[in-house]
Amino acid sequence: MKELHKTEPEAPRVFLAGLRDSSISAEEAADLAAELAGLARTLDLDIAGSEIVHVREQNPRYGMGSGKARELADKALAAGARCIVFDRELSPSQQRNWETLSGISAADRQELIIRIFAARAKTREAGLQAELAELLYALPRLSHKYVDLARQRGGHYGTRGSGETRLETDKRLVRKRIGELRKEIEDVRRSRRIQRRQRERQGTPVCALVGYTNAGKSSLHRALTGSEAAVEDKLFATLDPTARRVSRPGPSGSRRNIIFTDTVGFIRRLPHNLVDAFRSTLEEAAEADILIHVLDASDPAREARSRTVLDVLEDLGAGNIPLITALNKVDLLGREEAAVLEGEFPGSAAVSAKNKQGLDRLWNLLEKKLKL
Ligand SMILES: Nc1nc2c(ncn2[C@@H]2O[C@H](COP(=O)(O)OP(=O)(O)OP(=O)(O)O)[C@@H](O)[C@H]2O)c(=O)[nH]1
Ligand SMILES: [Mg+2]
User: Fold this and answer.
1) Residue 51, strand partner residues
2) Is 193 helix (H, G, I), strand (E, B) or coil?
3) Phi and psi of 171, rounded to 5°?
4) Is the distance from CB of 302 to CB of 272 less than 8 angstroms?
5) Ranges of CATH 3.40.50.300 domains, the chain
6) Please, where are the H alpha helices in 80-163?
7) Residue 277 phi/psi, 5° resolution?
8) Which of 55, 148, 192, 335 could form a disulfide with 83 if both were Cys (CB 3.0 to 4.6 A apart)?
9) pLDDT of 68-119, one tens digit each?
10) 109 lines ligand 1 (CB under 6 A)
11) Domain spanning 2-109: which superfamily?
């Protein structure tokens, strides 16, 4: 099955539909649309076209008026797309309505993110969590046309069949597998907890690097620890928390240890199924003694990114952990701009993980906060 999918010559052609209503500004809609294109590129999808639809009429059937919906479906078909990807969560029934209307597959941002996680999961733990997220997402959508995007993993949960009986069997199998996965993940979580307790007993403080995907967390982790974590200009390059201990010279010849954990990146509208499935990984941040929030300072949307990260941290129960902001990629900014930014973000250090710039200031902030 996998082989068959690997040899598929063409990338699936998709049409991207950003949606804008009165709740978001034109700027934010454009930024979200650009991000959706980034997610599609990460999956190697062939972008046939894109459009930001201005939604004035809230029709629950399609999430927009039926005239607009028809127009959008026609555009996607004319562009030769095999799938329309919406930048908004589609309910299972909306997804079906779109597929009936257009005759092609309909997907949403959540599905792209879940597919990326599934495609990039390398370790057993990440694999279990990604599969759980996929199944939680798939369960209410077993009749959805998965053909297009499933090629990354080969639609292993059998959605090809048709007819009630087949679907009911699938549902039972999927539920059973979800139960197994939850149990296996709980085991992994338990051993993580034990590891953490051991570290606590040794009194070694843990610093987790958190932040938006592609902000440079792995790069900074590498710069601080000299480790070899994968750095890639792709979204969600890291799915497993990599921990590494660093020994620093302390007062009067003593040594101070600190553990740095690299973590999975955040993104706006993170699928709740994914947060649920990846809770044990995300917990690494919630259990840290201190957080370094890595922010891409060269990104014009850095304020929105920063807010997303702080919101997710709050959700994870990590809102009260001391936090230092590392304004990363300042090599792409002018010196003055970097200084102004440091003023705007209290308790921050302008750094470049790439050029190893500003790391002394970051260490100072860290040692002060940890009272090392
Ligand atoms: N110019 C510049 N680029 C950087 C810097 N730090 C990281 N990058 C680049 O930003 C991209 C993302 O870096 P990563 O370290 O993989 O980012 P991440 O936050 O770990 O990303 P995910 O694991 O995907 O969430 C890579 O192309 C890096 O080379 C920096 O200080 N300056
Ligand atoms: Mg990373």
Assistant:
1) 17
2) helix
3) -55, -45
4) no
5) 203-370
6) 92-102, 109-120, 124-138
7) -70, -35
8) 148
9) 999 999 999 999 999 999 998 899 999 999 999 999 999 999 999 988 888 8
10) no
11) GTPase HflX, N-terminal domain (3.40.50.11060)
Whose C-alpha lies nearest to ligand 1, atom 3?
A: 329
CATH architecture of 203-370: 3-Layer(aba) Sandwich (3.40)
Query: 275-306: per-residue pLDDT in tens?
Result: 877 777 777 788 899 999 999 999 988 998 99
- Strand ranges in 181-301 using DSSP code E only, listed in sequence order: 206-211, 242-249, 255-262, 290-296
CA of residue 352 to ligand 2 center, whole Å: 15
Residue indicated by tokens 């000299």? 226
- Best of 214, 262, 356 to mutate for ligand 1, by most ligand atoms within 8 A of CB? 214
The helix, strand and coil proportions of the chain, stated in percent and rounded to the nearest 5, come to 50, 20, 35
> What does the alpha-carbon distance between residue 21 and residue 5 come to, in Å, rounded to a whole number?
38
